[in-house]
Amino acid sequence: MRSIRLENVSKSFDGELIVENINLTIPHGKFFALLGPSGSGKTTLLRLIAGFETVDSGRIFLGDKDITNLPIHERRINTVFQNYALFPHMNVFDNVAYSLSIRKLPVDVIEQKVLKVLKSVHLEKHMYKSISQLSGGQKQRVALARAVVNEPDVLLLDEPLAALDLKLREHMLIELIELQSQLQTTFVYVTHDQFEALTVADQMAIMNDDGVIEQIGTPKEIYEFPVSSFVAKFVGTTNIFRGNIQTIHDKNYFAIDGIGLVEVMIPKDAIWAKNGIQAVMSLRPEKIEISKSPMQGFANHITGVVMSIVYHGRSTQFNVRLKNDMILSVFEQNEEHFEREVIDYDDTVNLYWQKENVVLLEK
Amino acid sequence: MRRLQASVLQELSFFFTVPALVWQLFFLFIPLAIVLLYSIVQLPEGTLTLEHYRTIINPMYFHIIFRSLVLAIVSSAACLLVGYPMAYFLALSVKRGKNFLLFLVTLPFWTSFLILIYSWYFLLEQNGIINSLLLRTGIIAEPLMLSNNVVAIFVVMLYCYLPFMIMPLYSSLEKIDPNLLEASADLGATPWQTFWRVTVPLSMPGVRTGTLLVLVPTFGEFAIPALIGGSKSLFVGSLISYFYLVARDNSLGSAFTVFSGCVLLIVALVVMYLFSRRKARIAKGYNNA
Fold this sequence. Notes:
The complex is a heterodimer.
Chain A: E1 4-13, E2 16-26, E3 31-35, H1 42-50, E4 57-62, E5 65-66, E6 77-80, H2 92-102, H3 107-120, H4 136-148, E7 154-158, H5 166-183, E8 186-191, H6 194-200, E9 203-207, E10 213-217, H7 219-224, H8 229-234, E11 239-248, E12 251-256, E13 260-263, E14 278-283, E15 289-291, E16 300-311, E17 315-321, E18 327-333, E19 348-353, E20 358-361
Parallel strand pairs in A: 3-8, 3-9, 6-7, 7-8
Antiparallel strand pairs in A: 1-2, 1-4, 4-5, 9-10, 11-12, 11-14, 12-13, 14-20, 15-19, 16-17, 16-19, 17-18
Helix pairs in contact in A: 2-3, 2-4, 3-4
Chain B: H1 2-40, E1 41-42, E2 47-48, H2 51-56, H3 59-93, H4 98-105, H5 113-124, H6 129-136, H7 150-174, H8 178-186, H9 191-220, H10 223-228, H11 236-246, H12 250-274
Antiparallel strand pairs in B: 1-2
Helix pairs in contact in B: 1-12, 3-7, 3-9, 7-9, 8-9, 9-12, 11-12
């Protein structure tokens, strides 16, 4: 088993608590993303797993084995560094061969393994180049190849794509997913970029600014059913309303100052959500239908005035001022299958959404 | 416009090198040419001759050059062995007070070289501080021969030239990205393996500069052998000064200077080659196309 288990792990630097009492299980053979804002301690957590830092308290397990005090070089865990950390005095081949030669494998075995992994990252043509001759994307691939050639139990990736441009990043994400499914190694991917995390992860954890894990789940669970407004705001874009819950004739409503009641659905397990409780409502911009003419079949309807329009290419974002002066973001797909009405600045628009598409949150 | 500015700047930057070039011309290249000329001209006739070199090619002079070379190499090696751990510690282990420790290392620079050597002289001589202390405390009955021998020269050489080794070593060790050392450990290397496979190869520029900075001046060092080594041990520096100042034989002095200079140049090139940052080869069997 190559799962990672953290039990009550805490770490502070210079008296400042960076990660606090973390309990986390990273499942065997999965692509796991650790998502959080800068300074949330996710890199520290990664460094604790790798062994570059020692825990103040708590334990770390690899499978059933306690690796809390195991030296770095004895952990079967390899890291892809944010700045790649390639050895400048070695060429591509020797960088990749480093861990194998440390293990004193026979030269022909080393050659065979290095060639195989270089082929899988499409670098076999460049294997005798020195590191300074490579582009950013190629360096990234060398770092990846070097880390996986030794077949580690766990591969840690610390914001590995941060230095690449958008096109290359999207491309590398796909390659990473393919590599992971090919190797079946546990990947732990640290990033502050929600798009990357949602793209690659089988499972993900969201860390907040205080170094506490707010939610663990699949990307879809996290996106559709965030457990806190922090998660809702951090993963994707959302509109946050504050108000209180009201139950009238077995129907649940959310009362918002200056707007009135909107109908909501309360899941059965949300036992905290009682009549009269203060709560937060999250409504994703793409769940809202915007139209100048009236529409049928929606649970909720409010009106507003278009303040600004931002064209994003695949979608258009309308920022609409509501009656209570709150600005609501609405995304509309630019599918352009049919001629559609033109919505312009200062137009009064109708906004519709279903009660199932809002998420009620305690905080 | 910008290109024009750049080219003007380039012209200007050349202009600023003129004083240094003039200085070098008058105080390095012209004197060097004079020395070269002296060594191949028969005085007072003024005819070209190789006679001086024929005199220099003599086992006695070879012996002196060899002795200086051994002393220089041993001093450089000792400086490297003592200096590397210090530079390593300063560059990679010290977190606080680094500048203060660096200041302490460079402290000998702040004193005149001659005063340093004289201090050692007073420390080591027969009636010197060490001997009188030991005599007074009754540890020894007879004064020890601390100076006037090669070991004393070696010790003072090490003392005086150590900072020249530490500074370049420090600057090249400090440039090593700590992530590289972490990456090495991460890939399974023990601290010892990391040291030999990553730290040492990456610090080679510092090793090379430091070795040359010690090797070249110690080879021709004149003051230390003269003051600490006494009159018995002749080295290249002392012999050259003997030719010029005592024997007043500019021709032989020049020939010997040129000859020993060539020897030093060859040794320096060998050092450069040995300590060049050659590519670390892990797998030797594959074809390096």
